[in-house]
Amino acid sequence: MHIGRRFKELRKQRNVTLSEAVGNECSVAALSKFENELSEISSETFIHLVNRLHIDWREFQSDKKPAPFLPRYQQAVDQESPYQLLSLQYELVATHKGNPENNIAYCIVQLTLMRDYPATTTPNHLVKKQAVDYLIRVDHWNQEGFIMATLLVGLVPLSVVDLLIQHVLYQIESADTPQSKLDLANTFIADAALRESREGNIENAKKILLLSRQNTLPDLLVATHLKYVDCLIRQQAGDPHASGQLTQLRHFMNMINAGKIAKRWEKAAPGDPTF
Amino acid sequence: MGKENQPMIGFFYRRERLANDLSLSQATSQITTAATLSRFERGQTQIAASTFFKLMAVLPNTLESLQQSYFTLYDDTFQQKMAYAASLEDKTEQNHYLLTLLAHQQAKFSQTGLIYYQLNAFNLIVRFNIPGILTATEIAGPVLKYLKGIDHFGLYELDLLTTMVQVLPDESVTVLVQRSLLDMPRIYQDRLRDRYLWRIINNALDAVIEHQDFVIADRLMAFASRLHIPNDDIEAQVCQYFHQLQIDYHYGDHTTAQKRAAELFAGLELIGVPFYAHFFETRWHKLLVREGSEQ
């Protein structure tokens, strides 16, 4: 469907007139012509109009776009299904014949299998190398970038984890970093701190945990994750209160039907010196 | 930054293309030339809106995540201002900030007639419980009229509903919750959308329990019990657990519900974000007062 005609439908459903819709973005005549397929408007103007009317970009999506990777990956992780991950991996290999390691989605699936289901896959060191290269090379990480960095924490030597920490801090260096991005970074930081403590570097682990920060209200899951790791590290350091708090947190997670997540947090950073 | 401090769409596209490790020629994929895309990304030329959406289809991300990512380039969206207001701990400072924001939205509505400014003002009044400006009925009318015309609720409408379920009549809330749940996306389920749906369900439960409408609360819980909560949405898990405790208490299971509520609050307090513990403890206290167990 022509996106102008679709915009007209959505505008009318919202009872917004042409002149209310345009504001200072373009003339009423220009929008009217666009809506009636008589002319085009620039992408810049169109996005401003769509945002002005709070319409989802998805409304203008071509039906030909294949199902995106992330929802399918998240479903496989949610269902703790190595079979779904393997099937996703198989599809990605078929799509990216020759060098699937250059594909971010393939790397994420492979790293997840290596970290969470090592018996189902052969360790692929090229994937780890490509993932690290990508994270160092790319200036702006999207959600997939943060997922990949977090998966790597349990799979690469500590020196590489330290390097990734610097890149995570670069991603969130702006004082205005949105909380959703801080939540992604804080998840990485929790796993990196736990990995450090598992390697016996308690003081480093505590320092890494202090790198987490909030701008507004943090996601409850991420806040709980940070506290959980804090307790694990303090328990390892011999803090007499930590064990009791950890028991209380485990009870809290079981109570709200999220006990499996707490178990996953503990397993997230086993460490693998092979790289 | 583009017009009125909006981020340049070409700059945004470049950022997302590189984040997906795609070269210019991989991204253009016969849609346009690599040279045109390069100029577009640098703000040296414009491309048609339809071409832009074809380029977006090349990126493997969901359009929801791309749209959210675009908004992170702004430094002053209304949503960001709301989140900032919520994070202010000094109540005097928060009130001053909210009233300024409210006055701005009302002035923009008077100037432009665009309904979103009015809806934003309603959102502020209800979310932050700003007294003495409009009644629930005065807010509910225009909100219901706005939502009635829309075939498919987008993220904006879902966000609006998360707040407005607190002031809409209970029967309308049930209908709108059902409508939101049945309005399934065509191609894939998105996490952000799921999160809004769970907030709507839980805020609706919060409202009907406060109105002591336990028949509707039971009905909403019956819907909820048949839906999967994504593993990473523990806010929804906590809310569901908490609402069940409130319902159990209402039906007379005082001792167990009270004990479990105390354990829940202890867990939330331990996490160290005061907002969450305060939010649930306040609601529990109100329940006890309504049930006649406390003054």
UniProtKB/TrEMBL annotation, chain A:
Gene3D superfamilies: Tetratricopeptide repeat domain
Record GO terms (molecular function): DNA binding
Coiled-coil region list: none
UniProt superkingdom: Bacteria
Domain HTH cro/C1-type: 7-60
UniProt xrefs under CDD domains: HTH_XRE
Protein name according to UniProt: HTH cro/C1-type domain-containing protein
Organism field: Schleiferilactobacillus perolens DSM 12744
From TrEMBL, chain B:
Any Pfam family matching the protein: Rgg_C
GO MF term set: DNA binding
InterPro entries: Cro/C1-type_HTH, HTH-type_regulator_Rgg, Lambda_DNA-bd_dom_sf, Transcription_activator_Rgg_C
Top-level taxon of origin: Bacteria
Coiled coil (UniProt feature): none
HTH cro/C1-type domain sequence ranges: 33-66
Protein name, UniProt field: HTH family transcriptional regulator rgg
